[in-house]
Amino acid sequence: MPNATSRLNATLERLLPEKRLFLRSGENACFVRLRPATQLAALGGMGLVFGWTLVATSILAIDAVTTAGSRDGTMQTQAAVERRLAQLSAERDARAAEALAAQNRFAVALDQVSQMQTQLLASEEQRRELEAGLQVVQSSLGDALVARNDALGTLAADAQPDAVRQDEVAAALDILTSELRQAADERASALQEAEAARSEAQELALERDEILARNDEILAEVEDAVTISVEPLDDVFRSVGMDPDDVLSTIRSGYSGQGGPLTPLSQSTRGNAALSNTESKARQIIVTLDQVNTYRIAMEKLPLAMPVTQSFRYTSNFGPRWGRKHEGIDMAGPVGTPIQATGDGVVIFAGRSGAYGNLIKIQHELGVETRYAHLSRIRVKAGQRVSQGERIGDMGNTGRSTGSHLHYEVRMNGRAVDPMSFIKAASNVQ
Q: What share of the chain is helix, strand, coil (3-state, %, to 5)?
């Protein structure tokens, strides 16, 4: 082994000649020999450290670019879903209007059929009365003919009155026959009009059924779309330890002036089961859309933004650390890196606070509080209202800290929760 080391030193002698480092203390002096192999090992170690630094920086940069691309894609998908919902809603309204118009036309047609049936019954009654009158006249005419035949052999003077009476009866029969013919024509015409009205009513009923079927399909698509939109929002609040029902109740109590979603629809169904079912679906969709809107309001009140938007790296997670509980996450970066508010709120503390160093506390709605510690500079003051994304301070190394970083905490009703759940929730809804 010594021979191999000697040969290696001899080989490297021309490139890395031996160095001597002299150390002197008082009258004593000594030196340290840096052989070529030792110099080569030191240079190799420095190269490895430099290479590791380059690789780590590249990974962070690629991760940042990938996260930004994923967020943009998610936002585009969300925008496409909202446009589709708007289109389906407009088409649903158009189909509902068509169904209402078809229902009105159907009602008019039914009224016409009812009127024509009334006329038909009146014509039939008139015909029966005329037939009864004709039978009476025919019976009277028969009796008159019999009486005339009996009287022919009696008196010649009586012949002229019988002839006059026969002419009167014949004239009456002609009048009755004409009225019967007119009544028959009116009855036939009424039957034709009633049949035409029935055909039109059947066509209108088919048209109405087709519109209702299409309207049901549109409502089903809208219902599926809004249900899919609610599920991720519901999961977001559960992931950060919040009860979605409590959140919705709190938001609605603060926005009660807007009115509820259960306003009765104005169109009449006339007892039609299909329209009643459609109205029920429409009301359920309105309720779900109101829930989505309430969730959106609640999301705007949560601190879901990133406190650091420039390059950084995570150096410590939420949970046990060094035998104690670490109640936040650490994000390391250069001194002076901008720190931004993660949500709208009011600054309740801005100053020095023991191990936290320079600390900012922001109170948000729904019982959520965020803390930003170890700052090199504080740019806000207590009582000031801040908006999401507003710069509130600079990253630093104050308090109990081993290097420049941001200690970020999220507390719900005074209890520390994992800030990563809010950061992940933000990526799921953008």
A: 60, 15, 20
What torsion, rounded to 10 degrees, do the Cα atoms 222, 424, 301, 238 define?
70
- Give the angle 9-15-20 at the CA atoms, nearest 5°: 65
Q: CA–CA separation, 267 vs 70, rounded Å? A: 45
Please list the pLDDT of the chain residue by residue as tens digits (430 residues). 567 777 777 776 667 677 666 666 666 667 666 677 777 777 788 888 888 888 888 887 777 666 666 566 667 767 777 787 778 778 877 877 777 777 777 777 777 777 777 777 777 777 777 777 667 666 766 666 666 666 555 544 454 555 666 677 677 777 777 777 777 777 777 777 777 777 777 787 787 777 777 777 776 766 666 666 566 666 666 766 677 777 777 766 765 544 444 444 444 444 455 556 666 766 767 777 766 777 677 777 788 889 999 999 999 888 887 778 888 999 999 999 999 999 999 999 999 999 999 999 999 988 899 999 999 999 999 999 999 999 999 999 999 988 999 999 999 888 888 998 888 876 655 5
Separation of alpha carbons 411 and 419, rounded Å:
9
Report the alpha-carbon distance of residue 293 to residue 241 in Å, rounded. Answer: 21
Contact call for residues 9 and 16 (beta carbons, < 8 A): no
Phi–psi pair at 350, nearest 5 degrees = -150, 100
pTM over 0.90: no
Q: Can you tell me the distance from the alpha carbon of 332 to that of 315, in angstroms, rounded to the nearest whole number?
A: 6
Give the residue among 381, 394, 390, 302 at the shortest CA–CA distance from 349: 381
Measured distance CA(109)–CA(103) in Å, rounded: 10
